[in-house]
Amino acid sequence: MTTLVTHIARLVTNDPSLGDGTPLGLIQDAAVVIDGDRVAWVGETSKAPATDNRVDAEGRAGLPGFVDSHSHLVFAGDRTAEFNARMSGRPYSAGGIRTTVAATRAATDAELAANLDRYLAEALRQGTTTMETKSGYGLTAADESRALRVAAARTDEVTYLGAHIVAPEYADDPGAYVDLVTGPILDACAPHARWVDVFCERGAFDGDQARAVLTAGARKGLLPRIHANQLTYGPGVQLAVELGAASADHCTHLSDEDVDALAQGDTVATLLPGAEFSTRAEWPDARRLLDAGATVALASDCNPGSSFTSSVPFCVALAVRDMGMTPDEAVWAATAGGAAALRRTDVGRISPGARADLVLLDAPSHVHLAYRPGVPLVSAVWRAGHREV
Ligand SMILES: [Zn+2]
After folding, report:
1. Does 77 show up as a binding residue in the annotation?
2. Where does CATH 3.20.20.140 sit in the chain?
3. Residue 165 and residue 230: Cα distance in Å, rounded?
4. Handedness of CA 288, 294, 296, 301 (dihedral sign)
5. In the structure, what pLDDT confidence band is assigned to residue 96 with cuts at 50, 70 and 90?
6. Among 218, 252, 276, 380, which one is least packed by beta carbons within 10 Å?
């Protein structure tokens, strides 16, 4: 079964060999042929081949589905009171995670699954067609592995984050918890995950502990990524580049050496402006990273504590308004950048052979994602060739 989508006013392909030759590979009055779950053809509407079905985009803009490479959606409970207190003047610290750990441990499998389904559906309505998500609110072998099983039933991009914080039971002996995270908990979790992650931050895990977590995960076949340099300067970014991590996430407090390392290595700098927005923190400097030559991704960091938004368009608007990105750079970062952060070549682009993840906007250009912040512009979503919205 083939479907032709015609009259896309401006299509972002993220394939520089198509269209206008820019990184976004823009095509005017574009058409896309979807064959099964793949993109079969991309070009101008006037040159489109015949297909079984036809959909007229009527001058809407088109772009690849968002690739949200960082979220924490296997959780239970609510932290409205913490947010409310923070907006009344109390600073954010890593410790609030314990509230969600207690609620998540107390939840049933069905409750965790229903909560995850709800947020994945919410993200899909806003154009996200690939979503990474993590454990990290269980912190025992049984609770972490069940979080990963729930996630793996719903997304391919699953991350073991047993090293989110030190489990409350080990508050006085963090070394013993690192032994568990790199030993029995890892053994229980590795079969259910693709990635290993660690929160390398004051109040969570230091550089040596983070190195132990990531290298132990790698020995079990998991690929490293890291929460780095969010609240303070620290060793996380350098460790990520040294270990060849796919992504260093947050990157809010970077030294010149950190920026150079990201520019020269193949670790993606994933920026999560929802976190800075929701904690009233200093923005990461995307302009500095881009000017140095680093690859930048944008993701939601959707989690109940520090960034409870599933909206990638909102993150695009923040990145343009407050982080020095152009609209083109921000849209690339939220699609192709996210794919790079997940080492995926089949998503984040609209070109022949890619997975057919296509979003149409009720707007003539992708620039409207930043120009019209907060407006629900997503009007159609195909994921793997299925019309979902
Ligand atoms: Zn995170």
Report:
1. no
2. 66-341
3. 14
4. negative
5. confident
6. 218
